[in-house]
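Entry type: protein chain
Record version: 2
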Amino acid sequence: MKIHKFIFLFLILFSFNSLNASEDELKKNITKNLRCLVCQGQSVYDSDSEFAVSLKLVVENKIQQGLTEDQIYKFLTDKYGDWILYDPKFNKNTYLLWFLPLLILFLGGAIIAKKLIKFKK
C-alpha cells in the first residue's frame, strides 16, 4: 500500500512539474516576441529594464489565469499597440509592413532589368 501512495505522490509531483515547464516555455516564447518599449532592439525576454520585468510578470499572471498565447498578444496589443510585437499579425494596418519588402524587391528587379536591356542595345 505504501508503494501505491508513493507512486501516486510521484505522479502528482511530476504532473505539476511538467505543467510548470510548459508554462515557462510559453512565457519564454511570448516574451521573446515582445519588443521592450524602453530598450532599443531588445526583446522583453532579453531586457532587464523595469518595463520588461513588469511585462514578464503580467505575462506570467495572464498564463496563470488560463489565457492562451493569442489572448495575451491581443491584451498587450490593445494596451500598447501592434508595435510591441516583433511578429505582428497580418491585418489592414500592417499591409504596408508585409508588402513593402516585396514591392522594393520587384521595383529593384525592374530597374536592374531595364538597365540590362538598355546595356545590351
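Comment: DSSP finds four helices and no strands in the chain.
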